[in-house]
Amino acid sequence: MLTSVGDDHMGSFLVESLDKEGCDTRAIKVDSERLIAIVLLGIKDHETFPLMFYRENCADMTLREEDIDESFMLLLPMRRLALTFSAYYRVSIWWSALKKSS
Predict the structure, then answer these.
(1) Which residues contact 57 (CB under 8 A, 6 or more apart)?
(2) Can you say how many angstroms the Cα of residue 29 is from the centroid of all Cα atoms in its chain?
(3) For residue 2, is it left (φ>0), alpha (ψ between -120 and 50) or beta?
(4) Which residues of 13-40 are buried (b: 16+ CB within 10 A; e: fewer)?
(5) Which three-class secondary structure state does DSSP give residue 90?
(6) H helices present in 21-101, as ranges
(7) Which of 6, 14, 44, 57 is the most buried (most CB within 10 A)?
């Protein structure tokens, strides 16, 4: 797993949950200056589910190429690469992760 989480309760919860599920969390960067991003799902009625996004200056949006440990990426037995984190909106991060995984 390659991402960044805040040094907060939600960040700790996420990393611990991923660990329990067997995910390799060694490449998750913990950012002591920013919080983790959160999306809350509200339930108004049977057809309305408003979403509330808390994404201002969040940890995963600050992931940089320098945060990707090439030696770690080369050791991964990857057959698939799924890019789903908001940090990958920046092409440079996406490309860096892809280059270092091959």
Answers:
(1) 34
(2) 9
(3) beta
(4) ebbeebeeeeeebebbbebeebbbbeee
(5) coil
(6) 70-75, 91-100
(7) 6
Low-confidence stretches of the chain (pLDDT < 50) are: none
Around 13, how many Cα atoms within 13 Å sit in the side-chain half-sphere? 7
- How many angstroms from the chain centroid is the CA of residue 66? 15
Q: Residues 37-60: pLDDT tens digits?
A: 888 888 888 889 888 887 778 887
CB 6 within 8 A of CB 36: yes
* Distance from the first to the final alpha carbon of the chain: 16
In a domain? residue 102 = no
Statement: the pTM of the whole predicted model exceeds 0.85: no
Helix, strand or coil, per DSSP, at residue 38: strand
Q: Which amino acid belongs to residue 56?
A: E
**Rounded CA gap, 11 and 16, in Å?**
9
Return d(Cα 85, Cα 99) in angstroms, integer.
17
Q: How many domains does the chain have?
A: 1
- Determine the structural domain holding residue 54 and report its residue range: 3-93
